[in-house]
Amino acid sequence: MSEIKRLVLDVLKPHAPSMIELSKRLGKADGVLGVNCTLDEVDQETESIKITIVGQSINYDAVEKVIRACGAVIHSVDSVSSGKTLVDTVETPQDR
After folding, report:
1. Could you read off the pLDDT tens digit of each residue along the chain, which spans 96 residues?
2. pTM of the model
3. Nearest Cα to 76, choosing from 88, 86, 64, 90?
4. DSSP string spanning 21-66?
5. CA distances (Å), 10 to each of 13, 79, 82, in order?
6. Rounded to whole angstroms, how far apart are CA atoms 12 and 8?
7. Distance of alpha carbon 12 from alpha carbon 37, whole angstroms
């Protein structure tokens, strides 16, 4: 079975807990080696954030459990990388 190496998630969360706290909690999830949270949009009660997670064998269910425990919801899985190594997206002329 191919292991998940990178996840990019679009997440909607309440203001509390903070992005810092959510990032720390995600960093402790099974298989996670690093987390990057980027604020996309803020409104009166919520924040939309982009979460990028890297690891050798990311446990998606554990990640989702942490996010839900923080009162947040995954809007979409925007990117998934799996296999023996990470593969970066390459821009082609058609992408311009």
Report:
1. 579 999 999 999 999 999 999 999 999 999 999 999 999 999 999 999 999 999 999 999 999 999 999 999 999 999 999 998 888 888 888 887
2. 0.89
3. 64
4. HHHHHHHTSTT--EEEEEEEEE-SSEEEEEEEEE-SS--HHHHHHH
5. 10, 10, 18
6. 13
7. 12
Q: Could you give phi then psi for residue 88, rounded to 5 degrees?
A: -85, 150
Q: Which of these, 8, 4, 26, 6, lies nearest to 77 by C-alpha position?
A: 8
CB 13 within 8 A of CB 89: no
> Residue for token digits 């593969």?
87
Residue spans of the domains in the chain: they are 4-82
DSSP 8-state assignment for residue 93: G
CATH superfamily assigned to domain 4-82:
MTH889-like domain (3.30.70.1340)
